[in-house]
Amino acid sequence: MLLAALREEVLEANLDLVRRGLVLSTFGNASGVDRREGLIVIKPSGVAYEAMKAGDLVVTDLQGKVTEGTLRPSSDLPTHAALYRAFPSIGGIAHTHSEYATAWAQARRAIPCFGTTHADYFHGPIPVTEVMAEDEIVGEYEANTGAAIIRTFENLDAMSIPAVLVANHAPFAWGHDPRKAAETAWMLESVARMAYFTVSINPHASDIAKTLHDRHFLRKHGEKAYYGQMRAKE
């Protein structure tokens, strides 16, 4: 069986989405990529999470061609593949229809950074894609979804803001590996919920100050990060 270790990691990432309450029915999926082999492992389409095993996952190349697996891959595979091709630092992707993040996507509103919880994970607002044109929808819809996300990040760092809202659809999140992607999806839903309550309490709430935003993000990310137990230098 190809990529046994990555299969297990992708399986656990998919189950993480369920454990964290981010899954509605069989909606959503997580994937991982082996950059050396140029292969993606992704959830099969429409399979119930409670019945899914590592052997059920589908292996494809970076163009989305199946190389191993008897089940159909997730219908969102072309979106995942487009992101892996565009952003070499991404090692895992999670797509959900989690309630609050999806509500912001349906409202076609970026999620502002109102506080330090958001700033700890995302170095800026969570962007929303442009509304897709009719010919993009009736054509290669999932591949065009990937293209819409990529356009959204033309002037943004995908690893500093590792999530996006697809207008009228739902969120995608990513990370250095599949389980980190699932964690990012969890954090995205959390900050989406907080932002919803923030604007409900105060419709005129303003974004966090840049200095405070930078301090919280950079103490967890980058060369000068100091949050948590740092690995000792050898």
Keywords:
single chain; 234 residues; alpha+beta; L-fuculose-1-phosphate Aldolase; seven-stranded antiparallel β-sheet; 8 helices; globular
**Which CATH architecture?**
3-Layer(aba) Sandwich
CATH topology: L-fuculose-1-phosphate Aldolase
Number of strands: 7
| Count of DSSP H/I helices | 8
Low-confidence stretches: none
Quote the average pLDDT.
94
Strands side by side in the biggest sheet: 4-3-2-1-5-7-6
The biggest beta sheet reads:
7 strands, antiparallel
How widely separated are the two ends? 37 Å
Q: For this structure, what is the CATH homologous superfamily?
A: Class II aldolase/adducin N-terminal domain
- Decide which structural class fits the backbone: alpha+beta
Portion of residues in helices?
25-40%
Shape: globular
Radius of gyration of CA atoms, rounded to a whole number: 18 Å
What is the name of the CATH class? Alpha Beta
Instruction: Quickly count the domains.
Output: 1
Describe this structure in words.
With 234 residues, the protein is an alpha+beta fold. Helix content is 39%, strand content 12%. The protein contains eight helices and seven strands, in the order H-E-E-E-E-H-E-H-H-H-H-E-E-H-H. It has helices at residues 4-19, 77-86, 99-107, 116-121, 134-138, 141-152, 178-201, 210-218, and strands at residues 29-34, 39-42, 58-61, 66-68, 92-95, 163-165, 171-175. Strands 4-3-2-1-5-7-6 form a seven-stranded antiparallel sheet, sandwiched between helices. The protein is globular, with a radius of gyration of 18 Å. The chain starts with a helix and ends in a 16-residue tail after the last helix.
